[in-house]
User: Fold this.
Amino acid sequence: MNNQDCDVNTGMRPGSALSKLAWLVAGVGIGAAAGILLAPRSGEDTREWISAKCKDGIDTVNSKVKRTGRQVGDWIDESQHQVTEAMSAGREAYTKAKASAS
Assistant:
């Protein structure tokens, strides 16, 4: 029973790699927020910059989703073609086997 308790609690021990990573991510986030809020730009300029970055990110995601959709569609079409060919070959083999058995 003690082994199970130790295994469960090893994830976020002080000094563990996961704990260090969590602190690093938190620090980067806080630093980025402070940098944006304390930047020498005006609030309006900062909001426009954030808005432009968000729009760029959305455009990037949309283009990648479309490209992935096309790739999946192509993969499905190719798979359907292969299945159709395999079924035709199977039917042909069945017909030949049936004719030769008669």
